[in-house]
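User: Quick one: structure for sequence A, then sequence B.

Assistant: Sequence A:
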Amino acid sequence: MGQLGHRLLSIYAALVSTVFAVVMVSGANAHPKQVFDEIQVHRINVVEPDGTLRMVISNKDRLPPVIVKGVAHPEFGEPRPQAGLLFYNDEGSENGGLIFGGRKNERGEIVDSGGSLSFDRYGAGQIVQLAGVEDATDRFAGLAVSGKNRRIWVGTTGNGEATISLKDASGKDRIVMQVPEKGDPSFAFLDENGHTVKRILP
């Protein structure tokens, strides 16, 4: 092998070594941790390795409609006017979330003001909701626990009453404890038709 051959062999060996080193370094840094002081985005999707959606953080314009097993169903409800954080189960179906908003309409009325944190049972329907709303049409704040219908409500209503309401499987009030803004508190028992059968006053 002549001098030219040795030189070509040396160049080849150097190139192979360089490529090997680059591949090794690239492989070691394929998923490096990155630190940001601040990021600005419209939406973040958190997914499993197979692509199954597990969480969405979004502004109100990019908040998705109801998603069931990875398929969007805008027909299940009106467009959502709030920003928020949505949770999805192992199958990619929505099962709760945190939404919040607040704005005025063209008439100067406060609308969509408040927030809600909820968790759903498998399939559909909320089982726990912590919500607070105070706008032109609604005013309430409290905790709701549900089965197929709402079973427990602990909170305040539009008329200022603090209420604990225990309901039957049909969602009808059966025991209601109320404390108004002014006046005497009460404890009431109701029948299945919503009629008060006994009321306890101070």
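Sequence B:
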Amino acid sequence: MYKILVVDDEVRIRSIIRKYAEFEGHEVTEAGDGMEAVTLCRNGSYDIIILDIMMPELDGFSACREIRKFSQTPIIVLSARGEEYDKINAFGLGVDDYVVKPFSPKELMMRVDAVMKRVNSRGAAVSDKPKNRVIELDGGGLRADLTARIVYIDGKRVDMSPKEYDLFFYMLENRNIALSREKLLCEVWGYDFYGDARTLDTHIKLLRKSLGDYARYIVTLRGVGYRFEGE
């Protein structure tokens, strides 16, 4: 059972999500706007947040930005805006998934399960890894501490979203290997990921931006996927 915070200014939407979530045994708390959501997150603990974008008082992007200042609770964005710009903005803020309205409540619950499985498996995997797993490229110009989940570029620490870290570390550990889109989605997002390849491409764009000059290491393989080159 998960504790789910549903944030949407439409009562009907919140009611539908609550109905399906409670049917599957989850506990649901509702918020009608971004300000209320931030307050609830400061004063309580949730396993996952389902967050609308277009809301009064404080929009979903701003609410997500505030929540990420003090919490890494998984967030699924639920929005009528499906443009690439909005998705890039959302993923850049650290959301875990993006669902476009109109949506299937059943699929939304499957996405909740998928996100929670990835989060839980990532935590278990990190605890099993040995200490001081560091990879350096280009004479140390690009340095990644996989254990601490810290990346340095030319000595300066770079902040990434949780999924950017996952994608970067996986490609880094499998450098010089051609990785298909399907392989990356399966290994980084999980075998039961319910999104599409555009989610991967969006995160590649964000990762390249974060890496700056070292984005050259990420090579696009037309019709296949990507390869991270480096010794």
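The helical segments are 11-23, 34-43, 60-67, 84-92, 105-128, 162-173, 181-189, 197-211. The two ends are 44 Å apart (CA to CA).

User: Thanks, that's what I needed.
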